[in-house]
Amino acid sequence: MAKSKKDKASKKALSLGNLYTQEAVTNFLVNFGKQPDTDEVLRKAGITRHRLRVLLDDDEIAQAVETRIDALLATPLRVEPSDTVETEKLNLILKEWFPEIAAGALNALFFGYSVQEAVYELKPDGYIGLEWIGEKPMQWFEPKNDGRLIYRQEGSLTEHEVDQQFKFFLTRRKASYEQPYGKALLATLYWLFFFKQNGFKFWAKFLERFGTPILLGKCKDTETEDMNRALLNAHAQSVLSIDAEDDVQVLGTSGASGTAGAAFESFNNQLVRQIQKVILGQTLTSGTDGKGSYSLGQVHENVRMDKLKSDIRLVTPTLQAVVNALCALNGWGKYEVMLGEKPKPLNKDQAERDAHLKNAGANLSDQYFTREYGLQEGDLIHCSDKSQQTFSALPKRAFSFKASVNKLSEEQQEVEELADTQISVELLNQGQIDELLQKSENPTELAFNLMQMMPELNQTAFSANLDRALYAGDVLGYVSAEKSKQ
Question: What's 266's DSSP letter?
Fold first, then answer.
């Protein structure tokens, strides 16, 4: 009975259509007319979104923007699967048009959204490729919060929805239902740009007025107007003729200009730091008062890589949409475009060698593992409570070949080992080690041959010499033995 009531309730809800549509919708703004830009910075500044392009004329903003664009364009590009004929054609197309597609898509970071249009052509090889693809003026297009893209040419009231599968490609940054135009990074920089530009204007006016010395003339027999004209001519010609009773002094403004100069420099440096933090994440000397360090440089590099990964995530869907369009037009299968370095495969031989070196007591640095195995900072964890382990190819238990032959008890064996530790250890020389390697093909034979070569060795000396011989055999791979048998 309960089940039937539940089914009736669900069917009643579905019959109303509430589960298939959005109910909280402003239909007038969605379906009719241009939706207003709700960005508060743009509204208070009184400018439209595409007018933010003027910020790119600032030297500091332009340089920081170019840094992010250059990092993205330098990122390797590949298509998976990579072993087909279609992949070669896709790689040729992307190699030619990747800078335009990536740079156009990245403009969505700075302006909130960007739109690119593609023009196709039939290539001589018989497949459909790109004749041209590039960014169109963003003010011609209006992204809707339901995913549609409206084309409305500037100055015209006519509008129509455009195709986003083959013809137009939309990229948006942090778009939401309330703000379908996305979040423009340059809008965050607008007031910094405003104060920076006006600060330079104020500084130029200050230098024009107080940057040059002021001439003060004291008249005695000369008329004031004549002295004034003489001083004006002196500014232009650097020559002044006055009466013997008159006096001319130079009023310097070094103190005022020095104080104003220091204030302006501090003001400008702070604006520059803020601009770099907004675009690049942070500056190399952030919070260190100009004193950099290696650790701070590492942090800066990590932040830069985080920004690059963010740009890759923003651009990749647009690149994938272009690849999907090409595959659909040519009837090809599914291909995936990837940005970034290809994961470094593990070198098995190198890993085995490093394992032998580590077991033999060699201390390999963290920098070595990070460089050779593609690890990141923090991947390696060191346990400080564990002592450094030394190499031992034999089981970690009390053993003695002599004890096993004489059938000594464990107590007697421990006494023998305790006595052995008081005896000096006799080590093999290099010639004896080479002789052992020539006679042995594996660690078992190596241990047996060592016992035959030096049967009088105690357990401590035997273990030390066996460790040395095994280490040499592991590193060299028993080269000597293999060469001797060829």
Answer: H
Residue where the block lists tokens 């590009």: 77
- How far, in Å, CA of 91 to CA of 79, rounded? 7
pLDDT tens digits along 19-66 = 666 666 555 444 456 778 888 888 888 889 999 999 999 989 999 999
What's the angle, vertex CA 16, arms to CA 11 and CA 22, rounded to 5? Answer: 120
Distance, in Å, from the CA atom of 317 to the CA atom of 105, rounded to the nearest integer, reads 9
Q: What is the dihedral of CA 49, 55, 60, 61, to 10 degrees?
A: 20
Rounded Cα distance between 23 and 17, Å, is 9
Closest to 328 (Cα-Cα) out of 99, 86, 162, 110: 86
* Angle separating helix axes 459-476 and 348-359, nearest 10 degrees: 160
Residues 6+ apart with CB under 8 A from 54: none
Q: Specify the amino acid at residue 8.
A: K
Instruction: Return the higher-pLDDT residue of 330 and 399.
Output: 330
d(CA 418, CA 9): 85
Global confidence as pTM: 0.61
The dihedral sign for the CA sequence 358, 362, 366, 371: negative
Quick one: which H or E segment has residue 247?
Answer: strand 247-251
Residue 446: pLDDT above 50?
yes
What does the pLDDT look like over 315-331, one tens digit per residue?
A: 999 999 999 999 999 99
> Does residue 415 or residue 231 have the better pLDDT?
231
Domain ranges in the chain are 39-211+253-342, 344-382, 401-485
Largest Cα span, the chain: 132
CA angle 335, 136, 323 (to 5 degrees): 5
DSSP string, 428-474: P-HHHHHHHHHH-SSHHHHHHHHHHH-TT--HHHHHHHHHHHHHHHH
Confidence band of 423 (pLDDT split at 50, 70, 90): very low
DSSP per-residue string spanning 70-124: HHHHTS-EEEES-SSHHHHHHHHHHHHHHHHHHHHHHHHHHHSEEEEEEEEEE-T
Return the bridge partners of 217, or none: 248
Q: How far is CA 273 from CA 244, 276, 279, 300, 354, in A?
A: 56, 5, 10, 14, 45
Which distant-in-sequence residues (6+ apart) come within 8 Å of 315 by Cβ? 72, 101, 102, 105, 106, 171, 339
For 7, the token pair is 């089914």
